[in-house]
Structure prediction request, 857 residues.
Amino acid sequence: MFYREAGDFKTSYVDDGQTFPIKFDRYRYYFVLFVAFAMVPLLINDYWVNAIFLPFLIYSIAAIGLNILVGYCGQVSLGTGGFMAVGAYACYKFMTGLDIWIGGVQYALPPINIFFSVILAGLVTAVVGVLFGLPSLRIKGFYLAVATLAAQFFLVWLFNKWAWAYNYSASGQINAPEREIFGVAITGPNTEAWASYLFCLVIAAITAVIARNLTRGASGRKWMAIRDMDIAAEIIGVNPLKAKLSAFAVSSFYIGIAGALFFAVYLGAVEVGEAFGIQKSFIVLFMVIIGGLGSIFGSFAGAAFLVLLPVLLKLMLADSTDTITGFSTVMSWIFLLAFVAAVVMLVINIIRTRSLIAGSGVGWIFASIAAFMAYALTIGGMGWPTDIVAHLQLVIVGALIIIFLVAEPHGIAQLWRVAKEKLRLWPFPH
Amino acid sequence: MKKRLATMAVAAVMAAGPVMADLVFPSLSYRTGAYAAGGIPFADGYADYFTLLNERDGGIGGVMTKVPECETAYNTEKGVECYESLKDSGGLVYQPLSTGITYQLIPKMTADDIPLHTMGYGRTSAANGKVFSHVFNYPANYWNGASVIVNHLLEQNGGDMKGKKVALVYHNSAFGKEPIRTLEELSAKHGYELSLMPVDHPGQEQKSQWLQIRRDKPDYVIMYGWGVMNQVAIQEAANIRFPMENFIGIWWSGAEHDVMPAGEAANGYKAVTFHAVGDDFPVFDDIRKYVVDKGLAAGAGDQVGKVVYNRGLYAAMLAAEAAKKAQEIHGTAQITPSMMRDGMEALEITEERMAELGMPNFGPSFSVSCENHGGDGLGAITQWDAAAGEWKMISEFGPSDMDVIQPLIIEDSEAFAAESNIEQRCN
Prediction:
């Protein structure tokens, strides 16, 4: 009803080419920005920032970076963890004062402001990314994946071995000292929740807008031409060297920024093998695949999915509280009844249709899951043993990845697209 | 129906009124992942001791204790989530059992005024209480462990290790790298030759390291491993027929689950320890009576008396004693994390006290002070007897070479103080 082009007149080419051509979309976008910038910082505490918002924003930046490379340019990369490590260690060197030894004499730069340290870390990573992107000019597909895998292992090995990178500390750990912007601590232990959140949010928002516009413009079209068929792209005049290496550079720049924030703002202390191992490469790749290849929104959705789901499962299943207030008690009873009702309806449906999903089976499955989740959250968690919940988390996240790949290979972004198409026609579908 | 719901709601509100809050000892455990073999017995031992205190003594100083668990899987990101989610529960002291998580929590917890106890792991230089106000690593740390091992080797060689070759097989992380400086200093002092062999997380791939050991033929191998890495290393050592009595692990590499997979071949393998092994102590009778037989044991309840279980028990005992001390100092049973810190700093463990607790000679006696958060750093050597299927102490608790270790602690902690602008305390 509200979600349509009709009545939203464009009188210039600029208007016509904007990111959100539909008025409702545009206002929703402004509303999300308003909530994220003006309301969330007033409401959050340490838990929300450190357990949910920081990992979500930082993984989103990394997923956007990888999406540019894999989703837009079609070059598979398994080196994300290694490139994040480059970002983290570069940021550490810049924020503690880069030192160079020439002939036994130490020359050191003064420590650089944390914002510029993060940006410089991104640039350093971009250079490293281009270096490791060179093989992409000769090989593609699985072979390129293996070549980038080599980058992953080489970089982790390097930062374990190269004492200069961690300022010769005995343990090989890097620690983020306290750094400020306009007198507000951004890194270090005395950080306010809103400060580190806003810092990451600003960087995430800027990088997302740039990525969106890059992919809509000439360079994005070149990347997509290479992705769809590199020989055809070459024939119509796309330079594969420039296109592929620029994709590696931009992608690594984003991943480097994500690595720098991951170390400096989120964790505060990392060691390379544990924080930037092969697991990181895979999880960011899963985010891109689940969120949707070739979609900026999909990068955010995929990051949210893989960051929030384990936390949500933990809150629902493992935690327990013995102080439930009156209102929650009432609500939990309502949700428990709803859960029982949904399960009963599901069983009736199975008996009638002799199938789990026929009729409204899928609907009742979702209804019972939703009611159970609501019940578990209102009673403050089921209090199951932590190891069983940890194993269940793996099972559920893994199963959902498989379900997504089978049911919707184009990811959450495609679901969103379909929903928008349907909404455009609503309430008159014919 | 409506009326009943309303009554229930009112009852629930009233029930949630002011009550005596429990003393909370959070357990950042890991019962899953590559390090679960060590994480499970520690978490069980830690939880069981507090259950024992609740069941037998009615808590600490009349206040019941509570041990909420949070699964970290030895992963720093999950560790952050766990710390933040448990922070509001009023946790008195945290024991993450992970050097990586420890490094991350040190500045955070100092800022939040909550003490951190990293017993035999974590940042070794935290023993300098002048710099690290909220971090404790009594009764012994990694460097003490390394030195006790070298002392044992010296003893075997009649005090002279010139020309001997020692290989260090270590987990390639902050944990495994910690002893390198100490072993290098000691190598300069005693004249042995040190070679380093890193093993990457999680440690299942060690063929090349052991091939190198077979080629170089070192006289002794020291191991700083944890989790699945230990079992693989001991099996590999058996495969190349390395003499087990010349293979010595740190305390995180010396438990039943590490040596069992290699069977008979692991016989004679040694490890250093800072607490007693076995279940021949009166406290275990109480644990069986009040905890296991009542069905209150944590986990599967099958770990009682295992090496790492004992370590969890010991950690819980030290925490409970520190809480008692804090209650004495501040004259209140309801202590806060800040008071707990004072209790830990004033902690004194004597032989008599341990005997009273049913743990005679379970660990060395030591005292903590404002300057020294690391205790005296005593350690003993244990050896695996495969036929009997148990670890045996083969030495008394002996001192480590503090002449070498203390300057290293001062140097590393002062570098940290300079880096983080920390003013030294205790003056």
User: Anything to note?
Assistant: Chain B has a mean pLDDT of 89. Chain B has two domains: 23-140+278-376, 142-277+380-406. The longest helix of chain B spans residues 307-330.
